[in-house]
Here is the input.
Amino acid sequence: MKAGWFETFGDAKDVIQIGEQAKPKAGPGEVLVKLKTSGVNPSDVKKRAGAFPNLLDDGLVIPHSDGAGVIEAVGEGVSRNRIGERVWVYQAQFARSLGTAAEYVALDSKRAPTLSDKADFNVGACLGIPVMTAHRCVHSDGDIHGQLVLVTGGAGRVGYYAIQWAKMAGAKIIATASNEADEKLCYELGAFAVVNHKVPGWGNEILNLTDNKKVQRVIDVEFGANLPEILKCIGVNGTIATYSSTAIKQPEIPFLQMMYMDLTVRMIIVYAMPESAKEKAINDTNDMLAKGLFKHRIAAVLPLSNLAESHELIEQGNLGGCVIITT
Here is the structure.
């Protein structure tokens, strides 16, 4: 099969190779998926750059966790009725070497949920890390109906879906964005107010917009950098659900201030989510797709031969939407 892979860490253009690899086979409990698309996420790019030094101990890595395609074969214990089923794939390259940047992937059947006929394969490749992370951020700590919810980076890969999940859950949403186009997008998705997180003091600006009513939940893209402003506008017993801290990788926290506010900090990564949370996210996602309620933002669609370029697009850091590889 055609595939992209890397055998050493480094810049995408230097280490990513495109060529032929052995076609995998579905083992017990697994399905073999003929992939149509592969989703590229920041975590994939960080792995290739060397964020996990032991990643290559067992040999080459075919990157990417997300994708979509059609089940071609099943392993022992999986119903043959699944053959021919359109699916979206998540968690493909976690604790294993072979991800979705290839024509085929074999993986646990439960990591390949059915893809609604109302969603194309490009959309299917967006549903893993971005949608499931956003779902966990919104729903991990109780009902948010009627709550004030802040989504930082509302036009980003996760924030884009977080606004939609929160809107569907009946929350009142404030978002942050750094330019007019992203601000407009946040309003279109359902935010009632948007502030610029590049402007110092934006936490106070949120209070100005809410008549000093504080937010009860924050869905945050940049924990270390945003925490000082978040603490200005989050209320007692509030929750910060965060999935990234790229600018400040080892943040310091004002422990006593946060303790006396009885705050919850929820750190989220799809791989470590409880299986019950994954199942809930999958069911809710498929329901949203079937009803045509989701909006999607795809920034670039590239062929497998341009795999290195897709990683470089992610690394630029200012790309709005998902990056997709067609396999």
Summary: The chain has a mean pLDDT of 97. The longest helix spans residues 275-290. The CA atoms of residues 154 and 160 lie 5 Å apart. The domain at 2-126+296-326 is CATH 3.90.180.10 (Quinone Oxidoreductase; Chain A, domain 1).
